[in-house]
Amino acid sequence: MSAIKRIGRELKEFNDNPLPNISAGPASEDDLFKWNVILTAPPGSPYTGGIFTLRLELPQEYPFKPPTLSFTTKIYHPNVSNDDKGSMCLGILRSDSWKPSCKISQVLEMAAGLLKEPNVDDAVETGIAEEYKNNYEQFAKTAREWTRKHAK
Amino acid sequence: MAPSRSSRNSLQSVDLRALDYLTVPSANLLCPICHSPLITPVQTRCLHTFCSACISLSLDRSLSCPVDRKPLSHDDVTPAPIMIANLVNDLPVLCPNRERGCTASCARWLVESHVREDCEYASVKCAKEGCDGMVERREAEGECVHEEVQCEYCEGSVKKVDLESHNRECPKLSSECPHCLQAFANPELAAHMAECPEEIVECSASCYGCSYTSRRSDIESHTSTCHFVALSPVLQLHAERIATLELENKAIRQKLDLLVPPRPLPTPTSSTVTTTASNPMSASSQVSSTTTAGRDMTSEMQDYTFHLYSEYEQLRSDVERLNAQIRELDVKQDMARINEGLRYNDEMTGVRAAINGLRMQLHWLLANRREAGTSSPATSGNAGRAVAGGSANGGEIRRMSDSARQVVKL
């Protein structure tokens, strides 16, 4: 199982060089394909102070197929679907632009980066993206409110 | 040494990808796919380097470079420069038998020969002629551990390698009872443990609630005074009865689930009442028979139940149909009645209008008649007088009649 070996290697690497504001690891010892991720929102964003939990699922064909990343904490964000899945579908996670050389830590870094700077041109929630572009104050207000309500 | 050397080559295979490296290898030497130092490195047309196995796996799934996603085919993959292969092959690794105790480390390209020929902990074929067992190389020089030896206690034959585990259960050896600390021969130990006087045991009525525990030798005195023990025959009887009732209950519930449909019953008519009334009776008789027959629902009874149930269902649907028909008729009749009423109403108003017209005519006629009645006697009187009194006073009389007529008119 090349997937397990690679995931194990990435896990070790991730534990040796942890990323700021991100903690992650497999949900259980015997299933390396499901990870729990906790993101602490970086300062300078409407999500500041929020603690977001995410679920990272790696396919059996990893690294040839992209992992899926979904927010389990509700978040008001243009790139996160506003349903009970909370899935994040973006750039490198799309199967047509996924590269096997991409690492889990890069995926998580990207997710953390999106909290700071949403990518409105590649939005899932177009309504929120419009609001972000045209009425940032309102967007920030709602995002802060949701963060206070769901992520604390 | 010479004759046994070749036979002592280990057949153990080395998984290069699972090796642990002595130093952290440079990130430039890692395969982008498996993230371990390159194994049989190959190079693509776009000058990226991968393990040969990894890139072919990737190309099986998608014909593009895993790094820059440029189109790529199997033909675009060529062996990497020998320098890269040398760099990764020279990386120092730990022996894969490290967990068994080997502390050796060597360059990666040597690790296979180390395991095959040198590693003291690699498993090799047993040196003895005709023996198929495997043994670690360091023990291969000694006598064959797969030989059958005689156990010095029980005189049975045991493989040498299994001797240690055999000693734990050899019938001639003794072990200590964990309760009374006396030594017993292995086969007798189980029998002793069942009656060891020192073991802490529970009161025999513990299942009924007695929480008393003591050494087995002392439990007898407690048993003679324990109320739970005294009551235990009765309690046991009760427990048995409850168990039977529970089983029976379960069977009855099963029947009930079959008989009672999940949706609410419509207003029962006489036919459904009789069927439902007969069902519980048959169900209870069935239940009693099932409980005596070992509480098994035989297929026959099931068929019967289903038959009853289907009959009941049929009747119910009949009643539902009849109900619907009655309702329909009701509605029809209501409609007809209302229509009739409307028609009568119309007719009534017509008749009333006609009567009114007639009344008006009558009034007019009456008024006319009255008028004619008052004027005609005057003219006839005039005429009589005119006949009797001559025409000399005619003008005067006419005037009088005129005034009289005017009075009437007024």
Automatic annotation (TrEMBL), chain A:
It is an enzyme of class 2 (transferase). Coiled coil: none annotated. Pfam families: UQ_con (PF00179). GO terms for molecular function: ATP binding; ubiquitin conjugating enzyme activity. Keywords: ATP-binding, Nucleotide-binding, Transferase, Ubl conjugation pathway. Its EC number is 2.3.2.23. Residues 2-152 form the UBC core domain. Signal peptide: none annotated. InterPro entries: Ub_conjugating_enzyme, UBC, UBQ-conjugating_enzyme/RWD. PANTHER family: UBIQUITIN-CONJUGATING ENZYME E2 (PTHR24067). This is E2 ubiquitin-conjugating enzyme. It comes from Orbilia brochopaga.
UniProtKB/TrEMBL annotation, chain B:
SUPFAM superfamilies: RING/U-box (SSF57850), TRAF domain-like (SSF49599). Residues 373-382 have a biased composition (Polar residues). Keywords: Coiled coil, Metal-binding, Zinc, Zinc-finger. GO terms for molecular function: zinc ion binding. Pfam families: zf-C3HC4. InterPro entries: Znf_C3HC4_RING-type, Znf_RING, Znf_RING/FYVE/PHD, Znf_RING_CS, Znf_TRAF. Residues 312-339 form a coiled coil. It comes from the Eukaryota. A zinc finger (TRAF-type) spans 91-131, 165-220. SMART domains: RING. Residues 268-293 have a biased composition (Low complexity). Residues 31-69 form the RING-type domain. The keyword Calcium does not apply. Residues 91-131, 165-220 form the TRAF-type domain. Residues 261-295, 373-410 are annotated as: Disordered. This is Uncharacterized protein. It comes from Orbilia brochopaga.
